[in-house]
């Protein structure tokens, strides 16, 4: 179970959308979370990876090396 507080303007938009489409506010809140959760996960994981690279805890490899490794160099 999840309870969230939304700004009044967003709550009103959600109510209007639900009323006009015959769906529930919960339906649209759930859809929004499901659609954007993967993007948020990718963003935060990328930020952590960048931090590890900048701190010298992880190494990088060039695009040329990636292409060679996978037999895609010309």
| Number of alpha- plus pi-helical segments | 3
State mean pLDDT (0 to 100 scale).
94
Pairing-aware structural class of the strands and helices?
Answer: mainly alpha
Work out the helicity level.
55-70%
Cα end-to-end separation: 54 Å
Low-pLDDT sequence parts: none
What's the total count of β strands?
A: 0
- Major sheet details: none
- What's the helix-strand series? HHH
Shape: elongated
Beta-sheet strand percentage? under 5%
- Using only C-alpha atoms, the radius of gyration works out to 21 Å
Structure description:
The protein has helices spanning 8-21, 25-54, 63-69. By secondary structure, the protein is an all-alpha fold. The protein has a domain at 8-52. Helix 1 (8-21) crosses helix 2 (25-54). The model has no long low-confidence stretch (mean pLDDT 94).
In short:
Helices cover 69% and strands 0% of the residues. With 74 residues, it is mainly alpha-helical.
Summary keywords:
mainly alpha, 74 residues
Secondary structure topology:
Elements: H1 8-21, H2 25-54, H3 63-69
Helix pairs in contact: 1-2
